[in-house]
């Protein structure tokens, strides 16, 4: 029976591939490399798809067609092309494709990140923007951030006295996890409350599963067979999150009403659910989906950004010294950096932008989805195409950036280029309708953590490792982090 099913699947795939080729000949598709039957271009992707697509696009152009199994993909690799898809024709490409891992991990794609575009998604985004990620709500957690950062700095001081190496990657991940938990859930949860593997490991596993090339997505006939075991792993992980979030909500029900000042984000969502006043059906599944969005987005992306920024500062001691000098001038050497200082730290802002250019934490963003057939720049873009915006390639475009592989924060001196989606040569948070609604919170977290690390400590590599030997290898997922943890020796530099 299984063998018969396999051959029926192969025949269906071949028929679909031939039909797709016949249709493609009638249309003016974007240029692309030559594929092979059935797989299309899947065999061209390795461990780092964003790097592979960047390399291939150099030969085929900034709007490139590639076929992954049954799925047509349009790879976008320049600022001008990104503007066409994310601004000029934003409404056509504002949806998300069906995605097997996201289906199980986001309660049938009820979340903001993977939800299909439509009335429900628009109302959910409005809720997040006005209620959960507003300036007022973000400001209400300011004292919490100050408290957590104080504990974070203290945790390094003992290592500084002993002159021993610390796992900076693990420390930053713990900090962002604790900040996220207090902001979203109202209190810290121990790692074991989620799973024996802990928050960071489970969130990273989720990011890898969602980004993993899944045959079930590219060949729907194969989805039921789960040849790679991804469905099994994803369902198991989804149960971990579901059990934990149910416990969080039950804890909030037992705690009862709290004052507006003490309300965390789950309190706010539970109040909306209980009031019945939302513009769409809003139940526990929606709360769990948004909790996962907020936890993953505020924890993993911030931690990865900080790791890459510190890595580049270590490799560029002159930039490190210049940033420390700015911090000394604005803050002095007798206190920690406060959020009120951030607006005056112009060079810090340049350093963050330059790191986000070279190391976009979501190098392929989240795939967009064509809701209809459309012509873009003279090319036919078929309905249901996936649009992959290659941030990694855009940040290295030699037509836009001088000496693009080099870390030069000064390139932003006197520049109005921002990271909020208005300038298409720098899109770390996306743009248009699907741009990240948590930009403000993300930038505050990253700039605060980096400024404390650089202001309070000098850093050196252990075991006489030279700066040239610093490992900069990547671990691919929706969020691309360092492949190996950053181990550093701190030296406290403030005046007690």
UniProtKB/TrEMBL annotation:
InterPro entries: Cyt_P450, Cyt_P450_CS, Cyt_P450_E_grp-I, Cyt_P450_sf. Keywords: Heme, Iron, Membrane, Metal-binding, Monooxygenase, Oxidoreductase, Signal. Pfam families: p450. It is found in: Membrane. One of its GO terms (cellular component) is membrane. GO terms for biological process: terpenoid biosynthetic process. CDD domains: CYP71-like (cd11072). It is a single-pass membrane protein. Its main location: membrane. Heme binds at residue 436. Its cofactor is heme. Coiled coil: none annotated. Residues 1-19 form the signal peptide. One of its GO terms (molecular function) is metal ion binding. Belongs to the cytochrome P450 family. This is Cytochrome P450 71AU50-like. It comes from Salvia divinorum (Maria pastora). The lineage of its organism: Eukaryota, Viridiplantae, Streptophyta, Embryophyta, Tracheophyta.
């Amino acid at each position: 029976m299984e063998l018969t099913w396999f051959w029926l699947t192969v025949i269906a795939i071949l028929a679909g591939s031939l039909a797709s080729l016949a249709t493609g000949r009638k249309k003016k598709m974007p240029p692309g490399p030559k594929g092979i039957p059935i797989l299309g271009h899947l065999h061209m992707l390795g461990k780092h798809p964003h790097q592979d697509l960047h390399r291939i696009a150099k030969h085929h152009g900034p709007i490139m067609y590639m076929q992954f199994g049954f799925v047509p993909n349009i790879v976008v690799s320049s600022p001008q092309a990104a503007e066409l898809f994310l601004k000029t024709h934003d409404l056509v490409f504002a949806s998300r494709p069906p995605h097997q891992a996201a289906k199980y991990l986001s309660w049938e794609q009820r979340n903001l990140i993977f939800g299909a575009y439509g009335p429900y998604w628009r109302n959910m985004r409005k809720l997040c923007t006005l209620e959960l990620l507003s300036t007022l709500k973000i400001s209400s957690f300011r004292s919490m951030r100050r408290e957590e950062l104080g504990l974070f700095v203290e945790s390094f001081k003992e290592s500084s006295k002993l002159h021993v190496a610390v796992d900076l990657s693990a420390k930053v991940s713990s900090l962002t996890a604790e900040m996220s938990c207090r902001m979203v859930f109202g209190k810290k949860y121990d790692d074991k409350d989620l799973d024996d593997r802990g928050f960071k490991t489970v969130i990273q596993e989720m990011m890898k599963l969602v980004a993993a090339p899944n045959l079930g997505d590219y060949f729907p006939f194969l989805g039921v067979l789960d040849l790679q075991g991804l469905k099994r792993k994803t369902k198991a992980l989804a149960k971990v999150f579901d059990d934990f979030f149910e416990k969080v909500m039950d804890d909030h029900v037992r705690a009862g009403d709290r004052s507006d000042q003490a309300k965390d984000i789950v309190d706010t969502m539970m109040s909306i659910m209980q009031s019945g006043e939302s513009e769409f059906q809003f139940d526990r599944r929606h709360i769990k989906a948004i909790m996962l969005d907020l936890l993953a987005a505020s924890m993993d992306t911030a931690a990865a950004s900080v790791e890459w920024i510190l890595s580049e500062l270590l490799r560029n001691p002159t930039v490190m010294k210049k940033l420390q000098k700015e911090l000394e001038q604005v803050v002095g050497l007798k206190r920690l950096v406060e959020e009120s200082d951030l607006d005056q730290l112009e060079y810090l802002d340049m350093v963050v932008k330059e790191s986000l250019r070279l190391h976009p934490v979501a190098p392929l963003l989240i795939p967009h989805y064509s809701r209809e057939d459309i012509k873009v720049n003279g090319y036919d873009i078929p309905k249901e195409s996936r649009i992959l915006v290659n941030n990694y390639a855009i940040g290295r475009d030699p037509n836009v950036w001088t000496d693009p592989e080099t870390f030069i924060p000064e390139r932003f001196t006197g520049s109005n280029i921002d990271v909020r989606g208005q300038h298409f040569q720098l899109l770390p948070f996306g743009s248009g309708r699907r741009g990240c609604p948590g930009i403000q919170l993300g930038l505050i977290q990253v700039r605060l953590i980096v400024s404390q690390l650089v202001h309070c400590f000098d850093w050196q590599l252990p075991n006489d490792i030279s700066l040239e030997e610093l490992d900069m290898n990547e671990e691919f997922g929706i969020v691309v982090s360092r492949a190996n943890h950053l181990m550093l020796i701190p030296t406290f530099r403030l005046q007690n």
